[in-house]
Amino acid sequence: MKIAAILHLCMTLFHQGYSNNLASCQGRCGYGIDSGYPCQCNTACERYNDCCSDYFTLCKDAATSCNGRCGESYNSQNPCHCNSLCSQYNNCCNDYTQLCNAASGATITDAELKSLSETLYTLDSNKASASQLVIDPQALVPDSQTSSQSDLSPGKLFKSVDENTLFSRPTYAALLNVLDNYKRMTGQAESFSSQQITEQETFLKETMLNTKLGRELYGFLYTKGIYGSESEFIEDLKNMWFGLYSRNNNVLDSSGFEHIFAGEIKGGKVSGFHNWIQFYLNEKRGVLNYYSHSFNGPWSNYPDVLGLQFMWDGYYKQVGSAVIGSSPEFDLAIYTLCYIAQPGKQCRLSLGGSELIIQTYTWDNSSYGNGKKYIASAYPVSM
């Protein structure tokens, strides 16, 4: 009798546990109707009044959050989603960016970098053609001689530039308006008028919102959940590129844009200066003397990459690498992409089937927003 009683008790508890399990939505949220269960866990149960008692807690409340759901497969029963495509379809849960992007780091793979850079390369309709830009690289020197400060090229690097065609394009015109807003000596505080701030904003909008290339970059970053709107994208780029920080003398004397596009003088030598248009303008004015180049990329048309040695109004640049013949939007796009995807690292892109490596650096001494880092430098690796 005792053994029979124990067996009866065990069977009772087993069936109670099994029944309780069937009456729960644990692990069943969004499943289709199943008559084998005493209650259901999908939206139809609300109409038929046969939801499990924990349906609203487990399926309704939890279904509107990405807590524990990041990267899950698509389920049409869920009111919002937590996978990498939800940004594209505008159906992410409200906390997707906070929970899932933070958890995943909004990972951009090497394959995605190569694929997107090829697309940006193809979309660069504003790049210079062979008839619009003619260069004469002249002397090629080994890396061991780049510090010699020897003028080995009697002629200018830029033989001809079709300014009427190129500089009349909106993105070039916007860049030209911003380039002359800076003091090149570090240690001298930068300040901008309302007109100059407007010029910065115009440059970003013309390059990133008004070109197919810029919109392609934004669309990619949007699908990754990095930005939720165009306004958020532009505002972040404004801080990232034009936000001021101090390189010298504890004054706000520098920014990523100034360093990379315009160039600076620090410690008695040229710092930054990685833009071909700025090079051409200074060479044309007679304040920049081209000496030689130590690297010439594998590309037979534009954009190409050169590693340059030059003297800028009395200050020497040992190796100033630049993408040659590219549009302003192309430079801004690839540097931004690499800085977001792999900040402070080498970023491997692909242009026309040939590898282009971009090195970026973060500015670690100050930040903007919620601890975001300004861009310190970005340039093509020329070796």
Automatic annotation (TrEMBL):
Signal peptide range: 1-19
Keywords noted in UniProt: Disulfide bond, Endonuclease, Hydrolase, Lyase, Manganese, Metal-binding, Nuclease, Repeat, RNA-binding, Secreted, Signal
InterPro entries xref list: ENDOU, EndoU-like, EndoU_C, SMB_chordata, Somatomedin_B-like_dom_sf, Somatomedin_B_dom
Subcellular location: Secreted
PROSITE patterns in the record: ENDOU, SMB_1, SMB_2
Catalytic reactions of this protein: ribonucleotidyl-uridine-RNA = a 5'-end dephospho-uridine-RNA + a 3'-end 2',3'-cyclophospho-ribonucleotide-RNA
Cofactor(s) this protein requires: Mn(2+)
Domain SMB residue range list: 21-61, 62-104
Residues of the EndoU domain: 109-383
Keyword Repeat: yes
Enzyme class: lyase
EC annotation from Swiss-Prot or TrEMBL: 4.6.1.-
Subunit relationships: Monomer.
Family: Belongs to the ENDOU family.
Protein name, as recorded: Uridylate-specific endoribonuclease
Taxonomic lineage: Eukaryota, Metazoa, Chordata, Craniata, Vertebrata
